Amino acid sequence: MNEYIVQAGCKINLHLEVKDRRPDGYHNLESIFIPLEWGDILSFGAFDQRFSCDLRMFWNVPYRKCTKTFQKIFHDIPVEENIVYKAVSLFRERTGWDTGVRITLEKKVPVGAGLGGGSADAAATLLALDVLSEKRTPFGELREMAAELGSDVPFFLYKAPAYVFGRGERIRTAGCPWDFWALLVVPDFENDTTSAFRALDEERENDGGFSPADRPKPPLSGRELTDGLKDHPLNWRYYNDFLSFFLKGERKKEYSIIFETLKNGGADFYNLSGSGSCCFGVFTHKRAAEYTGEVLAEGKNFVQIIRFTSCTF
Which of the residues are catalytic? Predict the structure, then answer.
């Protein structure tokens, strides 16, 4: 097996509406996912033990940008609990492939940021193993494996902008005929997805339960969400239910400073990605994004500028 290298591009959510909680414990969602051509790098090579997976990881971001949670992942969490390792095990189980594989995972995407770094790694692993094994697994079967690994994982098999709904496993690809710059800003703290959903549920219960009529902004239909991609970001009506929740919490000051800086820096649109902690701005001009990024990087924020080159019809 020759070395096979792939980039697991992450994502941002332009929109995220958290709806009712489902019987299976997940929430129904409606979201717009945008894939980004930046993310973790995975290298696959041969390993001499059948059915084995030798997974090695390293962090490619300045140490001061490593949150305590990420350091804990490297030092305390068994490799068998890593989603890449789980993806390998599931692929073997479903296909019978037994060749040993060594994987090097170069982490670039911060953990607990709402960028889907781990989900992207899992999807990239499934696609890479399908190539290396020459199994030519039907796409529907790869989708089933991806959904078993996590709600966001199926999206990363498509590598296209999409309207995402259900618990996140239902995907309708879309297009966006514009070419702008995204400035990602990850503050020096992480958000645990499970805890964020639990806290949002508790707030809604304390307010008398969830009701669409109580939403700060009116719900948007699937057609409105996808049609909005054809418009200029200045006209987007997208929102994130977690943002209004966090702006009332203990991180209000940190988030407020970031969004005010994005606004003053010339962002045409800004929002929170997923359940945070990553904030982002969409810019028409690269220089404005660069200058704003320099301002926000003066603190402990991690910043990254990415072009939306993947958003085409």
Answer: 11, 152
Q: Identify the domain containing residue 38 by its residue range.
A: 4-173
- 60-76 confidence digits (pLDDT tens): 865 445 555 555 555 56
- H helix or E strand, kind and range, residue 149: helix 139-149
Q: Is the pTM of this model over 0.85?
A: yes
- The token duo for 277 is 């902690």
Q: Which residue, among 184, 177, 115, 199, has the nearest Cα to 152 in the 3D structure?
A: 115
Asked if the structure places residue 313 within a domain, the reply is: no
CA distance 10 to 12: 7
SS3 290: helix
Question: What is the domain-level CATH number for residue 231?
Answer: 3.30.70.890
**DSSP H or E run through 225:** helix 222-228
- Alpha-carbon distances, residue 275 vs 12, 49, 256 (angstroms): 11, 40, 16
Q: How far apart are CA 296 and CA 313, in angstroms?
A: 33
Shortest CA distance to 174 belongs to which of 4, 22, 33? 33
| Residue count of the chain | 313
Nearest to 12 by CA among 312, 313, 311: 311
The domain total for the chain is 2
| DSSP code of residue 240 | B
Alpha carbons 223 and 38: distance in angstroms, whole number? 28
